[in-house]
Amino acid sequence: VHWEVEESPPPKxxxxxxxxxxxxxxxxxxxxxxxxTTEKSTALQWLTKEQTQGxxxxxxxxxxxxxxxxxxxxxxxxxxxxAPFTISVTVPEPLTAVASGEPSGDPxxxxxxxxxRYEQKxxxxxxxxxxxxxxxxxxxxxxxxxxxxxxxxxxxxxxxFQDIVEDFILKAQEVVGGAKYEWGSYNxxxxxxxxxxxxxxxxxxxxxxASLIPGDRSLTPTLAHExxxxxxxxxxxxxxxxxxxxxxxxxxxxxxxxxGKIFGPAFRGLLLLVGYNDLxxxxxxLNQQGTPGLTRLEPExxxxxxxxxxxRVPYEKGSLFLFYLEQIVGGEQQMTDWLGAYVAxxxxxxxxxxxxxQHFLKFFKGVxxxxxxxxxxxxxxxxxPDFDLSSYVDRSLVDESRALAxxxxxxxxxxxxxxxMKAQQWMLFLDHLINAVVAGTSISHDxxxxxxxxxxxxxxxxxxxxFRWCLLGCKCKWPVCLDWTEKFLANHGRGVxxxxxxxxxxAFDAERAISVFQQNRNFYMTVVTRQIAACLGLG
Length: 539
Fold this sequence. Notes:
Layout: E1 3-6, E2 18-21, E3 44-47, E4 59-62, E5 83-92, E6 96-99, E7 102-103, E8 108-110, E9 113-124, E10 131-134, E11 137-142, E12 145-149, H1 154-161, H2 164-175, E13 188-191, E14 199-200, E15 206-209, H3 221-228, E16 236-238, H4 245-263, H5 265-288, H6 313-329, H7 332-346, E17 349-351, H8 353-363, H9 375-380, H10 396-411, H11 423-438, H12 445-455, H13 463-475, H14 481-491, H15 495-520, H16 526-535
Helix pairs in contact: 2-3, 2-4, 3-4, 4-5, 4-6, 5-6, 5-11, 10-11, 11-13, 13-14, 13-15, 14-15, 15-16
């Protein structure tokens, strides 16, 4: 078989080089490719033992989304190509290897090494080939679910996820019209807090950041989100990265439907408004970067690394669009009927936005209001869409957050009772304050100090609340927040937290932002390090 490594043209130089293999015509061929990864392989994250929770053994994990699979193995590294796979991983004892498939037999021992084998029978994209190797223990968290984590984390993780996993799976199945869960087991592996994402939907083994274990289950919506990917993203996939909202927007929409079924419509309304405020922050950040085109739902990113285009926009603008469509077609049940047909039509396929649009129009051809949909505005319009979400949701929990924020903005204090408030209400409260500051309202340092004295927000274990408190402090140029912000940036590596924080810290104290980044750059994953370095002007 003839093969060659093709030289990439200059515009594509950052995307790697093609391995071109001439295959015989009309014949099935088995290829064996020998290769090595290097320390520059962006899909691989190597942690020294000092960087782990237990500090006894090193840890390694992979993260290939969006286009890092090519640095892990030779593959057609695009979401438009799917294939089943088998994988074997040999590791030194007492480490354990967990991968994104079902185990094939028991581990085999040879000397001081063990080999773990896994098989994924459902065709998947290259970015879902995933491995974590570490000193791991496991525990049962549901009838088809295990949790893997370092020994010092395993009990907290079990308490956080026990039994709720199965409830989420069953409710998600209802929302997608009864479509079968096709993956067998559903397991969770807890990643170090340096993980660049909240969760990663690797089949049979979702990766979840340790940052999302506050001890009160307040951040389990992320787990619900990753479970929904079992149908949307992993089974029905965006063909190209411009269509990423078909993955994340759908998943976010269904996730909130699931949580609404469990916790009630007021909680769904709260999550929708939290998400809308995340969208506001994302649009503001992208406009500050001078990339307003990335606020489109279907952006033009042919010459852009998809990771550099990553933001909350496909999640929140996509979810908002589907919520708008829900109002157009008549409600939740109508959307559930369509989602069932959508998954059945496109399972194991990779599709574009136009495929989704045409399927929707055909399914709802008898609904008169579909003529009202301005597809161009939603798909290609920049910035926030012209849609008043707040008038369509149960606002009872939302209004409590708004009242608390208004009290502080108008009187610099508040006597509103807060002991019963949910974590998401605190997030929304802080979002209201952040949005007010961005809009030009001034919040004094004395007012911020009074909030801290009253609510002890710097001591929260909820990473979402902590992130917002640090962000508000930086935007208000409050010196007291600097130590908390530095501590946060040294302990959490999720991109949607650290990138906005570094941008806000740069606007507050550019020299300090660069210093903090230089201290922590080896803690973050490559995908995050590259983006922050660019934001700080470090190349």
